[in-house]
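ingest -> fold -> write
write: protein_1
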Amino acid sequence: MKKKLRIGILFGGRSGEHEVSLLSAASILKAIDKKKYDVVPIGITREGRWVTADDAHALLTGSQPPENPRLAGDPEATPTAAVIKRGEAIIVPPVPAESLQPLELHAAAELSPARPALALDVVFPVLHGTFGEDGTIQGLFELADIAYVGSGVLGSAAGMDKAAMKKLFAAEGLPQTPYLAVLRSVWRGNPKAATKKIETALRYPLFVKPANLGSSVGISKVHDRSELAAAMDLAASFDRKLVIEQGVGGPGAKPRELEVAVLGNDSPEASVVGEIVPGSEFYDYEAKYLSDASVPIIPAKLTAAESKQIRQMAIEAFKACDCSGLARVDFLMEPAKGKTKPRIYLNEINTLPGFTSISMYPKLWQATGLPYKQLIDRLIQLAVERHREKHQTRFTRV
């Protein structure tokens, strides 16, 4: 009988997308094939505490885990990097500076036989945003030498940092709206000079964003100078680097917001193109998660040529950032103006997009012919394949 893979579903985290992560994890835990996989839930609290089993379930259901949960696990699994591999009922220290210190574990005699340490075959991180989608947790997986779903350290970091991402897109000649990157220290040090630089390079309306965040957290649409300072301050509260983009289509224009799901490793495939019609002025956090006014259209109403172009651009963006596993690539399309062909701009890539059963990424694959449960299977397969491929690489001269 074929051995069942043991899958760790990692969720929660310290980012502003904590709640979104819980929703994604709950959907995966409900849909994943329990006959095919042993599933271990692993939660990270807002404070950065790692919890498993019953405590992880409590985190999902809105109950806080105990302040001082009992530590249990394999006494030999002391480095934090090994925690992921050793599995259940281990709490990781929350302080990053102490993350390579030995864990304080109970003696082996105190371990509960009902909750033994588990070796994980694959980790499925559903950690959106900072500390989960930016290459940091991926580095831990690499140190632990464990297979994991999604992009590696480079792809995750590049996909999270919008300024770095845009440079990679530009190197591949992919069309983007004009933008500037401004450091928080520069903005706070001399806001008048920063404003002048922004207004010299870009035209209103503008979008001001934290460079390293997702789910539209901290993003503002700026119609004129009177709104710029508040938008910059908001974005600066979330990141040290800010990205200011020129709006597509000009004043009063509302571009079409298009999305493509990409799946694969070295030979990625693109889903059908979907469109989001926001219930607000743009597709912000409230429109995504707190309102049912936004309308998804799958597939988007495009010409065959437009759809082909967008899908190809999505694959090129995926490769440009050295992504693997999964990503959702977002586009902006100018409003139609008479017989003029509307231009299409690459907006950004999301390496760990929302993964509830009604999120755009799985819905796009559902419309392409790959149902949610099978999509989970495919992502796990891709993680295993990538891990095996990595083992073809030599790390020493001996």
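write: protein_2
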Amino acid sequence: MTPRTEHRPQMSVEEFEELERHAPEMVRLEFINGKVAVKPMPDGNHSEIVAWLQMLCMQHRPDLWLYAERGLKTEDYRKGRARADGVLVPRGAFKGHGEWSAPGSALMAVEVTSWDSDAAQRDRVDKPDGYAAAGIPVYLLVDRDDCTVTVFTEPKDGRYRQQVNSAFGAPVTLPSPVDITLDTEPLKELAD
């Protein structure tokens, strides 16, 4: 069986970046597994979840910041481009960067599922693989479809080796290097 990453991409990374630069402002593009994807605009609850996570990260880890909608170079050899719902890095880590940053300083990537038909594949399969291949230590998926939070850790060979699922309302531990425990009770009100 041929691994997914060995397929022919729709275009080069350089061609994607040129396309993305000329896209209308309301269109957010990503380049995942060699395919161009349109990332849906967040609804109100999606934005509230990201803001809630920003607040908790700031309270528990004031040395870090959760940047929303940050462009990251992902996948093997940085050939992917993902616009993460959140990226946790030391404050100032993106200073001087352009639209797409290398993931070296990223401690955690965050995605909150949207209501589009591609969300299942993109947020649950493609992005974890891309973030793992980029060496991001923790990937946090807030899945509004099934009201769960999944913490992916231990990236190795393009996959996360550990994955812990918790229902909304349960405490969720984000291990080192993040070292935060989330009380996910507020997510119950934001699942819709």
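write: annotation protein_2
The first strand starts at residue 28 and ends at 32.
The radius of gyration is 16 Å.
pipeline exit 0
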